[in-house]
Amino acid sequence: MKQTLPVIGMACSACSANVEKRLNELDGINVASVSLPGRSVLVDYDPRVISLEKMKAEVNALGYDLVIDKETSVEEIEKREYTLLRRRTILSWLFAIAMMCVSMRWLDLGSRDVSNQVSLLLALANILYCGRQFYVSSFRQLRHGSANMDTLVALSTGIAFLFSTFNTFWGDAVWASRGVVWHSYFDASVMIITFVLTGRLLEEKAKDGTASSIRQMMGMAPKTARVVVDGQVEDVPLATIEVGDLLEVCAGEKVPVDGEVVWAESFMNSEAVYVDESMITGEPTPVEKKKGANVLAGTIPSQGRFRMRARQIGEDTALAHIVRMVQEAQNSKAPVQRIVDKAALIFVPIIVCLSVATFLLWLIIGGSSFLPQAIMSSVAVLVIACPCAMGLATPTALMVSIGKAAQKQILIKDAAALESLRKVDVLVTDKTGTLTIPNKNVDFTKADNLPFEEREILKPNAREAMDELQKKGIEVYMMSGDKDEAARYWAEKAGIKHYHSKVLPQDKENLVRKLQAEGKRVAMVGDGINDTQALALADVSIAIGKGTDVAMDVAQVTLMGDDLSAIPEAIQLSRNTVRMIWENLFWAFIYNIVCIPLAAGLLYAFGIDWQITPSLASALMAFSSVSVVLNSLRLRWMK
Q1: How confident is residue 2, by pLDDT bands cut at 50, 70 and 90?
Q2: Is pLDDT of 214 > 80?
Q3: Among candidates 565, 543, 572, 567, which has minimal Cα distance to 460?
Q4: How many Cβ atoms from other residues are within 10 Å of residue 324's Cβ?
Q5: E-strand stretches of 19-105
Q6: What sign has the CA pseudo-torsion 177, 179, 181, 186?
Q7: Which amino acids are annotated catalytic?
Q8: What is the mean pLDDT of residues 333-360?
Q9: Cα Rg, the chain, nearest whole Å
Q10: Which is nearest to 296 in space by CA: 255, 239, 326?
Q11: Distance CA 380, CA 595 (A)
């Protein structure tokens, strides 16, 4: 059984990696895949072996919350969490400003001792009110033998605070005899927490943008429905609708569930209405619906009104299926993300070791007189390291691109399918139902006497789509069961150079196999049962949403409409996404590779008296995470 469940409280890639690792260790779970930007986990489990309550308990023990109650409003929880985060951030900035006034001597408190004691109180208040969650989270992680970004923040701020507290009360007695000039670093403790909270606030706002497409789709279903009881119409909550209920829908209202029309009227037709299905199928013109026709949840009648019997409700509607499919795709992981997740699990321990090594190296170089430098350099290393940027590099790009595809009526099954699309260099397409559709202006009772070119028409933008694919360097092959003359005609009309006529299902499979043997990466487009063999064999399988369920089940990509320009769009989106992922990973790794040595004080070895301070380190760390998310959001506006 597969289910997507929200996870509350994850802040970095180490968080998501720890949750995923713990769930995958449990008996009864086949595989669990956590999405950090999606704030959710896709879990494939056996309900006979493990319950959702058991999973929730295990996740809660790590310091996060797994939401299993469908009645719980995750959106409300996230709003409350965001409001609390914003409040803590604002308060932390107030503490930071007060701390600056004291440390920069803008506020004259008379003596250094008094200034340090006031700074201690400000830093302590900031830790207790604004930074408490870092310490609570790191303690929970420690109990389970793991660590995350909170561990680094708690260690760095804790060390800076304790060392400064020691200096405030015993600094003169201990360091004066050794000729060491001591300082307090309460300002560093406050600024680290302030910048980390600011970064998370901006990051949450940016991540919220990556999930906008799925929220738009979920918002397509109305909250209420108009049910007909004893001839009277009344508004009721959508959750109360049952299969078989009689519902009424008027022009401009959203269809609440999937069902069958039992009665309809409009000013254009006394027995039919016209329903806008563009949000589901991409069909630009409203579709006529008479008695017996099926209507889908989320669609909107453009005029008139109708009554319908509810047939599929709740999670069984076509809209719910699409939302579920997109959620599962957004939670899936690209192959490169598996490597990043493994790195995230060991990243924090490695940074702690580097911090300790930095501390020891400074002491070896300068002895006890370099103790303040050693402590601040080790703290800067703890703060500057950012597993968040690495963890967000891949999933944010995937979430944005899969969501953007869904808005264009392109349903992508998983991250692997999206990644594979960019490698396609040959596309094999079926003709009837895929490249062409029946000509509605023809009387098919006389079809036997019609020439083949009048029986069908090309789908919208078919010629343009084939031209665009070939411009991208992709060869196109058309497969048809028609005679050679008809196949050649439609291939030429669609601008396709390669075609095969009089083909059987096995012939399609054979062509795909032959092209693959030549080293080609093959995408197959089809809509019927006779295409399933070739679809299953192809490197990327693309089904037409109005085709058979069998073809759609096999397919990795489903086009919900008839506009074939979606195919080159999907391929271009794949290329843009993979390029964006590697850009994000490059900058995330370069950031850590360059900044960690600078924070450790490497430049001093070259006679340059400069290094990244803990306060600057916290600002850079926050910026690195936000920049990755914002970079991924550019996919929404790319062509």
Answers
A1: confident
A2: no
A3: 565
A4: 15
A5: 29-35, 40-45, 65-66
A6: negative
A7: 430
A8: 83
A9: 31
A10: 255
A11: 10
Q: Judge whether 525 and 428 are in contact, CB under 8 Å.
A: yes
For the segment 121-153, what is each residue's pLDDT rounded down to a tens digit? 999 999 999 999 999 988 888 887 888 788 888
Q: How far apart are CA 589 and CA 577, in angstroms?
A: 18
In contact, 523 and 430? CB cutoff 8 Å: no
Which residues, in sequence order, are bridge partners of residue 5? 41
Residue 614 tokens, joined: 């803990």
Return the amino acid letter for 2: K
Mean pLDDT over 614-637 rounds to 84
Averaged confidence pLDDT in the chain: 85
Tokens representing 572 are 């271009």
- Tell me, what's the pLDDT at 215? 66
In the predicted structure, residue 424 carries a pLDDT above the cut 70? yes
Residues paired with residue 478 on neighbouring β-strands, in sequence order:
429, 499
Strand partners, 234: 227
**pLDDT given at position 547:** 43
| Tens of pLDDT, residues 148-201 | 788 888 998 998 899 889 888 887 767 666 666 667 788 888 988 998 888 888
Could you list the beta-strand ranges (E) of 340-417. Answer: 410-412
The b-or-e profile of 325-346 (16+ CB within 10 A means b, else e) is bbbbbbbbbbebbeebbebbbe
Count of other CB atoms within 10 angstroms of residue 158: 18
CA–CA dist 131, 173 (Å, integer):
31
Alpha-carbon dihedral angle through residues 230, 231, 237, 240, given to the nearest 10 degrees: 40
pLDDT tens profile 452-476: 877 888 988 899 999 999 999 999 9
Q: How confident is the model at residue 384 (pLDDT cuts 50, 70, 90)?
A: confident
Q: For the purposes of burial, counting CB atoms within 10 Å of the CB of 84, is it exposed (0-12), middle (13-18) or buried (19 or more)? A: exposed
Partners of residue 235 on adjacent β-strands: 226
Report the distance separating Cα 203 and Cα 37, nearest Å: 9
Helices 335-366 and 371-384, packing angle to 10 deg: 170
Which helix (H) or strand (E) covers residue 545, if one does?
A: none
Would you state the pLDDT for residue 283? 66
DSSP state of 286: P
Q: Using an 8 Å Cβ cutoff, are 273 and 305 in contact?
A: yes
DSSP 255: P
| 287 in Cβ contact with 274 (< 8 Å) | yes
* Long-range residue pairs from 583-587, CB within 8 A, at least 24 positions apart, any chain: 583/631, 584/389, 584/392, 584/393, 584/394, 584/396, 584/397, 584/628, 584/631, 584/632, 585/336, 585/340, 585/390, 585/393, 585/394, 587/389, 587/624, 587/627, 587/628, 587/631
CA atoms within 13 A on the CB side of 606: 8
Strands (E), 266-382: 272-276, 287-290, 294-295, 300-303, 305-312
